[in-house]
Specification:
Length: 164
């Protein structure tokens, strides 16, 4: 009885094992990348601070794209300033003018106010007490940075236990 097929199957098992090990290594590496990539990034800032590093949302292949929300917390004050510009000293007249201006607000201004109010509510929910602040997955807050890439490095260091 010849067993030539047996030798081939040993080679197949060896190569097959190697392929499985390589694939498993890639799966583990992809899982680590995914774990180190937040699903949601929320930025709490003001209109006078410019946020950089937006390439964070341009994911590399195999990485999920995080949902990025930027909240300009001074959005309500900016609209209030717009509404109260050049008001009369007479309270009744000022009240009428502000009401009229409010009714004539553009949809963009209304959306900006709503988004700012939502941002303020989220900031309170997270206990964010100053800005700029960047919150990752509702768990980790990085204060004082306006560069998303640098903040993401801090987040990843925290995830792996290597505090920056």
């Amino acid at each position: 009885m010849k067993m030539t097929g047996y030798k081939h199957s040993n080679r197949f098992v060896s190569w097959g094992s190697l392929v499985i090990v390589l694939l498993a290594g890639n799966v583990v590496q992809a899982a680590e990348l995914t774990a180190a990539t937040p699903r949601v990034i929320e930025v709490f800032t003001s209109s006078d601070l410019s946020i950089t590093g937006g390439a964070v949302t341009n994911s590399a292949p195999g990485r999920p794209t995080p949902d990025l929300q930027i909240y300009n917390l001074d959005g309500i004050q900016r609209i209030e300033a717009k509404l109260s510009k050049d008001l009369s000293a007479d309270p009744e007249q000022s009240k009428r003018v502000v009401l009229q201006r409010f009714q004539q607000l553009h949809d963009d201004d209304r959306a900006q106010m709503q988004h700012a109010a939502m941002g303020l509510a989220r900031a309170v929910q997270y206990g964010v007490d100053r800005y700029p602040a960047i919150v990752f997955d509702g768990q980790v807050v990085v204060y004082g940075l306006t560069d998303l890439e640098v903040a993401l490095q801090h987040y990843r260091a925290w995830r792996t236990g290597n505090q920056p």
